[in-house]
Amino acid sequence: MIRRGRLEGWLKRSIDDLPRWAAINGVSFRGIKIGPLPGLENRGSTVIAKQELRSEKEGPLMVVPKDLIISRLNIDLFAKSDQQLKEVLEAVGEFGHTTRGAVLIFLLMQATISCPDIHDVGVLNPLTEYIKFLPDELLPTFWTEEEQELLVGTTLRPAVRAKFNSLLREFEHLRTSTQEIEWCAKYWWDEDEGQVTFEDWMSVDAMYRSRALEFPRIGDSMVPCVDMANHASGDATVALFESDEDGNGLLLLRDGKDKRAEEEITITYGDEKGACEMIFSYGFLEDNVTSARMMFLNLDIPGDDPLRPAKIAVNSAAPGFRIFEKEDGITAWESDFIWLVCVNEEDGLDFKFMQTVDGDQEIMTFWGQKELENTLKLKSLLQQEPLWDVYQLRAVCLLQDRVERQIETLEEMGEPEKGPTIREVPWQLAGRLRKLEGSMLERCRRDLEDQKTKLLDSGVVRQYLGISEEPNEEVDFS
């Protein structure tokens, strides 16, 4: 079982009690129910048709009152009547004004309110009980260190490490910001009696990450009961979620998606998401997934680049590049960062230190005589240059080298053995991800080689490199 920390407010309620909770709190079901699929109880609960459903005749399958939606707006409303919630949101500063920060703190407060050892904290509300119906999700942040070692060579490994570091920073910020609040000091942080641990913060993160939906006109939210629906992509998606003019949450059948009794009602969590993101955020992959779809590889500025410190200081792009699959199966890439890596002073890139009115120094970036206020705009400037093909060739060579190193890391890992302490789900997911990403990297390597070959045929490139017309002449790209 996933660790839930020390808060006893995480004690679970049976899904059989959910219809009563829904009826009391105004959630209406039409022709559907929530529970396990017959014969597939090990998959947990989902939304199921109780009767034959025809899309041309059906209204909303589910209506969730707007007051129950866990959104940034509603948390502000809850805080008006819950003084302790308001205290914490204000104490953490800007983090409490973000949707993620507000939702995670709200969820932690509901577990606190439910804890039998904690009294006179928070205001009981319908969502205090609802979170007890949510299942534990085996996301990679809850994998053991041994299970995470299976991810070496995949893009999920650095993503999990980065998430751990981010969660630790958030948790420490929460602790230091609220330790002077009397009830927080007593019930959350006291060395002997404090109830909140880092595992509790991991739990609210997993709950939000795996259940948040981008709801139309509402934004990222957790919508009770709608978030019980499982994911299916493409044509297998049965229903969609929407909000009505009053802000209530709706679950609607898609056109032409008729369903028989006892069949599952699925939604999409995002068809564009790659295999890595699906495992990272939801802890599963569909059985029919045959491609990694999208990958992000980190990229560093070479240590011998004399402009490296200045480039790092001014960079405003994600330090890496995205590989994705086009409809024709060919891989493509995109990156704003790579252009900062592959140009230097001799090309026209320059940095100058300017004195501010406060006496501090500020780095200013220039391309030629033009000030570059944002490095994200560098590519558009390079595209206007006569040497654009040369810059593209440099970028492709750098990316190809990075892809080859990633392939080597995967190959060095080999086929890991399944130890007795490794659980089946992490073992299966890690193995599938390694194969999917390995296949995509191999295709990307070939596609980058094709791009390089085409660029070498450019007259601008040949002139720049001093390549003669001899067809077999070797080229040194260093």
UniProtKB/TrEMBL annotation:
InterPro entries assigned: SET_dom_sf, SETD3_SETD6_MTase
A Gene Ontology cellular-component term: nucleus
GO molecular function: protein-lysine N-methyltransferase activity
PANTHER family named among the record's database cross-references: SET DOMAIN-CONTAINING PROTEIN 8, UNCHARACTERIZED PUTATIVE METHYLTRANSFERASE
Protein name: SET domain-containing protein
